[in-house]
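Morning run. Coffee first, then this:
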Amino acid sequence: MTTPCVRAPVVEGEATRAALAERDLLDGDREIDVEDGEIFVPVVDGEAARAAGYEVVERETDRRKGHTTPADLLGFEPSYERLGEVVILDEEDPERAREIADAIVESDLPCGTVLDRASKVAGEYRVREWDVLSGESTETVHREYGHEFALDVAEVYFSPRLATERHRVVEQVEAGERVVDMFAGVGPFAVPMAARGAEVVACDVNPAAIEYLRENAERNGVADRVTALEGDVRETTAEYDGWADRIVMNLPHSADEFLDTAVRLAGDDCVIHLYDMAHEDDPFGPSERAVRAAATPAGYEVEVLTRREVRSYAPHELNVCLDVRIRRI
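And here it is:
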C-alpha cells in the first residue's frame, strides 16, 4: 500500500526515526525502507511531517513482520484515534464497536483503554460521554510535536485531529512574545508557545482543564512562562488590558462573542487567531466582519494575514481559522 514517508540520507536515518517518534509521527505498523543511500521512514501524518520541515513522499511500504494490527484480526481497516494509550472509536453499532475493541486489545497496538463516543461535545466545558469498552481509566498522556499533555477525556476537551493546525500557529511565535490563550484547555497551544520563549496567559472556565494545564506546564518545563487563569476570560484578565502581542481564540462555535475582550487585551500591534464554524458558501466573511466591527471602533486597522479551512465539520459547514493583525492607528 502507498504510505507517506519521510525521505532522508541513510546517515541521518536513526536521528530522523527518533525525531519522528518523539513527535508521535512514526508509523510503527509499516516497515522502514532503504534504497540508493536514502531512508524512507513511514509516518502517520504526512502533512504534519511536512509542517515539521521534513521531505515527504508517497511510497509502497510493507507491513511490519511479526506486528499484529487490528486490521489483521478484523479483515478490514477500522477507524480509530489514539490519545496516548487511550484508543477512541466512533461507532454507531455497539456490536461493531465491541468487535473492533476486542481486536485492538488482542493486537500489538499499545492500548490501556478503548472508548466509543456516546454523545456529541456538549455543555460549557465541551466534554462528551463515553462507552468504556475495555480498561477503566479515561486519563492518559498524549504526545504531540515533542510535548506531553496529561488529560482525562471525560473531564476536558481535546482533539488530536487539530495537531497540525496547532503546530502551524505555534511555529509563528517568537521568543519574547506575550500571548493570551483565551480558551486554553489543557495547554496544547499554550505549552509549546511557552517552549518557544513566549510569556503566556492561559484561560479556561473548566477547573479540570486548568489543573491539567498547570500540570502540563510543569511536565514540559515551562511553568515559569505560563500563567493559568480559571474562569471566564472576560472576567479574569483585567490586569492584562493592552498587553498581548498574540491572541488565540479557539472556541469555534462562539469565539466571536469574545472579540471585544480580545481587542481589550490586544497591544498596539497584535495577531489574533480566530477559529469559527462557517457555511462553505462564505467561510470567512462572518469572522472578518466580526473582527472589523470589534477592532475598528477601538482605533485599530485590520489586516487579514491568512484565511484557512482547517477541516470539514458537518455537511456544508467548515471549521476555519482567520489570522488577522490589528494595529492601533
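The chain has a mean pLDDT of 93. Good start to the day.
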